[in-house]
Structure to design on (289 residues):
């Protein structure tokens, strides 16, 4: 996977050994992660954080005439590569864009328009699969594991990464999310597109840092054309069984659900654990099968 190899290979020794997908056993769709090896690529609009995948180019950084001219010319060149236009029309568009971006008010107006377009594109054409590097975090069980009644499926990160490397159509980006007091600014004149995209999709504010997230992202527009809008079925990805390495059941999972999951875990030859509460109110786990 040449186009995005850098994000997976850079600091690979720092990547987690196991990543966990928290699900509810009450929801038949959630069961399919364990029973049918299915992951759902959620639209950013479906995610809990309203600012998720909303970190975009900061046009306030175009604070000199030279920067404005360089940016406008770059956009014009990219546009002409995709769709040739009349030279006079091109000149008018360039001049109009330079005038708008020349003032703080114009840049702010352009920012609002760009943000709306960017959000619409992300919501309609991107898919996100979220994991965590931790199974012990109580808030994750509460938010995503049906308040300790569901389960967390553990994936071997290296095996998962190797599987994804074999087919670039599966996911475009993947890795650990970084957390910041303020989202990092993205310079319009930074031409490192893979890094910019990673900043857009894999950075969040620190109030979400307890999730210790690892995520995969998929850009349907790049794969199937910018007019392609994925259906719910298009957003489902099947993963090979060998990527899964363990099953962790919530500490107050109903007995019938627990037994059902234990049976499935045994059939899949997975080690099965259940979370227990320690005397110091932290979480531990015990082997069930």
């Amino acid at each position: 996977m040449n186009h995005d190899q850098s994000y997976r290979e850079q600091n690979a020794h720092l990547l987690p050994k196991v990543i966990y997908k928290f699900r509810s056993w009450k929801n038949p769709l959630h069961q399919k992660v364990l029973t049918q090896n299915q992951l759902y690529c959620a639209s950013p609009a479906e995610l809990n954080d309203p600012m998720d995948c909303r970190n975009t180019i900061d046009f306030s950084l175009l604070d000199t005439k030279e920067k404005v001219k360089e940016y406008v010319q770059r956009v014009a060149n990219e546009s002409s590569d995709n769709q040739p236009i009349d030279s006079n029309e091109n000149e008018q568009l360039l001049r109009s864009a330079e005038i708008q971006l020349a003032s703080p008010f114009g840049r702010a107006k352009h920012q609002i328009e760009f943000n709306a377009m960017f959000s619409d594109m992300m919501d309609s054409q991107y898919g996100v699969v979220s994991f965590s590097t931790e199974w012990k975090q109580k808030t994750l069980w509460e938010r995503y594991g049906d308040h300790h009644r569901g389960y967390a499926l553990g994936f071997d990160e290296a095996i998962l990464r190797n599987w994804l490397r074999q087919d670039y159509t599966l996911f475009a980006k993947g890795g650990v999310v970084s957390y910041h007091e303020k989202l990092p600014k993205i310079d319009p004149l930074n031409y490192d597109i893979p890094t910019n995209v990673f900043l857009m999709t894999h950075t969040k504010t620190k109030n979400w840092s307890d999730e210790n997230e690892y995520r995969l992202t998929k850009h349907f527009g790049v794969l199937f054309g910018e007019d392609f809008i994925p259906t719910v079925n298009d957003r489902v990805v099947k993963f090979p069984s060998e990527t899964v390495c363990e099953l962790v059941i919530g500490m107050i999972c109903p007995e019938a659900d627990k037994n059902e999951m234990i049976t499935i875990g045994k059939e899949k030859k997975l080690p099965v654990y259940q979370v227990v509460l320690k005397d110091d109110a932290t979480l531990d786990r015990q082997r069930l099968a």
Confidence is low (pLDDT under 50) at residues 1-9. DSSP finds ten helices and twelve strands in the chain. The two ends are 37 Å apart (CA to CA).
